[in-house]
Predict the structure.
Amino acid sequence: MKRLAYVDWMRGLACVLMFQTHCYDSWMSPEARKSSSLIRWSQLGGTLPAPLFIFLAGVSFALVTERLREKGIERNAIAKQTIRRGAEIFGMGLLFRGQEFALGYPWAPWTDLLRVDVLNILGLSMMLMGVLCWLTANPDVAAARTRNMVAGVFAAALVAMATPPLWTTHRPKFLPWPLESYINGVHTFSQPQPWLFPLFPWSAFAFAGLAAGFFLFSDFAKRKETLAFAAIGGAGILACAFSVLFDSSPIHLYAVYDYWHSNPDFFLMRCGILFIILFLVYAWCRWGFAQKGFSPIIQLGNTSLLVYWGHIEFVYGRFSILPKGKCTALQATAGLITIFLAMLLLSLVRTNWKKWRAKASQKNLAAGAATAES
């Protein structure tokens, strides 16, 4: 098994779920929505892509940090590199919002430029993880890994527990709405919006992924990889069970109880589902057919940022390939298949372009070395 193929497969799964959610949401007519259960299943699947992307960012962050430490790079340099990468992703989020505003002009309101989206929170979460790993670093690689894992769990719990009051009774209303929106997703509305992606609670998924990543790269997991993933899956089942138990309890910690949007119990349930998916995808990549030849899901996962960026305008934007809000379920499904194939082709072009550039660079280096020797 190619190491970490399961990460790419999970990213590819998130891409596919994202495609179907956006396509059906954008293209299906109100009549089709009412007469078909497809849209309900689509919306259910649509609750997974954002947590998957952010969670996997934490797992990948742990991998990068671990490899840099094994090379002997000191913690300030690691923090600088990882935080800078987070800043780049955040900058891409701002650029993406600018692109969408420009393509939607003059119908798009200027406030869309300041909307908190997935890329924004991905970048900020990576920057926060860089700071966390820097604060909890240790000269000993194993000790640093353990400290980072514990810190990740603590940070995820802290963010999840702080979310309900920051959404309701203790909102930072003294901040301008563009800044408060990064805390609770209020945007221009009077109340936080669950369809946006503020730091609370979304960054908690990144910290949970960071903790899971450092666990999976521990000495124990390297020796007994299958057992480690089984433990992750078991922890996911327990998390889901505890979420149901806490939700049914008559004791509530918060004045406003909103299980489906801001409550830590719901975060616990979604983390449990992510852990279970991680185990199942690992098993599929380890013993299934995920890597028997070409895998379109892994291919999409390799270029998830590109296909995320690329499909939006052809589904929601001015260049939508189907009329928005006017299609039957069958027409929307045909459009979904088209988007999937188009994004897969775009992904392949990108991958082959990178390979071509790498080969050209190697040839140039070889030619330069031969000239120098002569």
The mean pLDDT is 92. Residues 1-46+293-374 form one domain. The radius of gyration is 22 Å. DSSP finds 15 helices and no strands in the chain.
